[in-house]
Amino acid sequence: MRLITYATGPAPAPRIGVRVGHRVLDIESASRVDGEPLPASMKGLFREGRGALSRVQALARKAQSDAGRFASALLEERAIRFLPPVPDPDKFLCVGKNYRAHLEELRKNDLIKEMPEEVTGFVKLNSCLVGHDTKVAIPAPVKHLDYEPELVFVIGRRAFGVKGEDAMDYAVGVTILNDLTDRDMQKREVASGSRFWTSKNAPGFGPLGPEIVTMDEIKDPYDLWLTCSVNGEERMRVNTSDQIWKLPAILEHFSRTMPIEPGDMFSTGAPGGVAVGKANAKDLYLKPGDVVECSIEGVTTLRTTIVAPSANS
Fold it and tell me: Over the range 37-65, which residues count as b (16 or more CB within 10 Å of their CB) and which as e?
């Protein structure tokens, strides 16, 4: 399934849907057509458990074969505004320094002081998250804005004290984060020892989506190609097999003393190939007018347009 959080205008409350062909089926509205109401939020849906997800899948099949019956719950994609698939996670934990090639880029640019010996991470704030096909303004002080496409695992049920061998049972699906980064601020944070990562948490610095692709559609999460293109030019193409710590180690590490709740997310790090790692980095940093597409190749694509501060929306 492809699960989406969306709005139909600038003010309405977020709704959740599931792709049905080229349209979106509103889950709560469809459930009223056929059975008892389902939740209207992604976290609420996950809290209902696997039975609720199975019911969403059944509703999508019914809407596919009997669109007329579900007409009131079906929307054209052009009529919706994509929001982050989980706009309000209790925790969005980002694993740092997790691709071998990217570690070398960071080392060469003095963006790490030492190679990590265990899983490291930082928090991505909800206030920086935006959805697919959103315009993101470059804050005036930022001169070197970099792109970082990252595979994100969405957790579907409460995880506490999880052992690595059981970790994949807790993942409901995957999505994409473009972990936009102010490289100048990042250098200052590394030099000072700061762990807050203001460089990654400015408004709009968390494009996420466009959808959650459930795990039944992902044959092997560690044989996926992550790509990033800017204005149609491919800047990177890296396989997720290059990750050092995979979800079993990540979830075991973080759930030792901290409960991971339904809708929490783990972003699994930036691959090698970002602008800062290249000799012509100054030519590659993002500028107003750039269209950035981050993809799980053959699965889904997240698109973001970079704009000047006055044009932010």
Answer: ebbbbbbebbbeeeebbebbeebbebbee
Task: Write the pLDDT tens digit of every residue in 252-278.
Answer: 999 999 999 999 999 999 888 899 888
pTM to 2 decimal places:
0.94
Do residues 204 and 256 both lie within one domain?
yes
What CATH number does residue 299 fall under? 3.90.850.10
- 129 and 17 belong to one structural domain: no
pLDDT at 100 over 90: no
Instruction: Locate all alpha helices (DSSP H) within the chain, ordered by sequence.
Output: 27-33, 42-47, 50-65, 100-108, 183-192, 247-254, 281-284
- Which residues are CB-contacts of 263 (< 8 A; sequence separation ≥ 6)? 42, 43, 46, 86, 88, 89, 90, 154, 155
Which 3 state secondary structure label does DSSP give 250?
helix
Tens digit of each residue's pLDDT (9 = 90 or more) over 183-231: 999 889 888 888 778 999 999 999 999 999 999 999 999 999 999 999 9
Tell me how many degrees the CA angle 103-197-213 measures, rounded to the nearest 5.
Answer: 70
Q: What is the Cβ-side half-sphere exposure of residue 284, based on CA atoms within 13 angstroms?
A: 19
Same-domain check for residues 135 and 13: no
β-bridge mates for residue 27, sequence order: none
The three-state secondary structure class of 151 is strand
> Residue 259's closest CA among 154, 119, 157, 129?
157
Cα–Cα distance, 298 to 23 (Å, whole number): 19
Take residue 254 and report the two structure tokens written for it.
């973080």
